[in-house]
């Protein structure tokens, strides 16, 4: 074989590989159970002056951890005990529940992007013998994708972009209106809540595929 | 205007109207809460010899009714009280729950088409002081569309066909793998369960649109 033939073959192999990588837009997915983020103020209100959350294990997003502490969340119609508290402490306390949870608790939690709690539902939180009310902060987390910049580049997406995601389960759905959040500290992962997880019969290991407007 | 001109105009108007009707593929949707269908045998086991269900109000599907009777359903991890019983009596007892319910109850109910209960989960049902076990019959109902033949013709669909349905809510999803059931006694309606309803923030009046393979 001469050089030109070899070069042609190499070109074809490279093209083939890059075509394939374009197709490999598979997303890991995680289902988030109900959980609570607490501010320092609320940590102290529930666990005592000077108290800090105790990490139990790391979560998929770097720096985030499941704490050893557990709380109850309470609404006019019900309560959930033994709810996970995620650390580290945040600026504002935020309670993330599903619509099903919201109905059980009797709170009207809106679907919101994490951090956007203005005017969201009030809720009560208790631990040990302490019980506090947060005036706002109970939300249903809007489904979203954590994405580091290198993946954003690969997918051709930007922070705050809205995409659809097809879930390859045995009860397949396409989630529209999925928020892309790009940050260098993120690990690639789509987060859905348990209503969404159950609606598509999600099991660990089930993957998604991003459908942009073009691909719809 | 001569006859031919008028005929051309009429043809255009008719074509326009039929184009529009093709676009008007909007589907009414209903969310089904957990409920129970009982066989005569089980009605008697729960409510006494010779007992028959008492209709309380008619449901969207002709001939089907919500009965005045209520039951509890019980699994190894939990129970739900005050569960609706739908009539009339069926050949086989069937308990329809969501995945969320199945997890709460601790039963492994498979996603199944109504009536296909072979090998599905066992569950206990109680009413008054009676409690019975059904060996199989607890399922998560596969999402489906009840469709009379005239609508099937309009949509170009057949009994047992699988379609996708886009839901026009403020948390929009496309449900894939939706079963079409055609029967002259049906009224056009898509049925989803509460996990699916909550995943798309369904409210009464939210409509769907059938996407066939062609339209995907």
From TrEMBL, chains A, B:
Pathway recorded for this protein: Polyol metabolism; 1,2-propanediol degradation
A molecular-function term among this protein's GO annotations: metal ion binding
Cofactor: Zn(2+)
Catalytic activity, as annotated: propanoyl-CoA + phosphate = propanoyl phosphate + CoA
Keywords from the named record: Acyltransferase, Metal-binding, Transferase, Zinc
Primary enzyme class: transferase
InterPro entries found in the cross-reference section: PTAC (IPR008300)
Tagged with keyword Glycosyltransferase: no
Protein EC: 2.3.1.222
Residue ranges that the Swiss-Prot or TrEMBL entry lists as coiled coil: none
One Pfam family linked to the record: PTAC
The family this protein is said to belong to: Belongs to the PduL family.
Cited function: Involved in 1,2-propanediol (1,2-PD) degradation by catalyzing the conversion of propanoyl-CoA to propanoyl-phosphate.
Protein name per the record: Phosphate propanoyltransferase
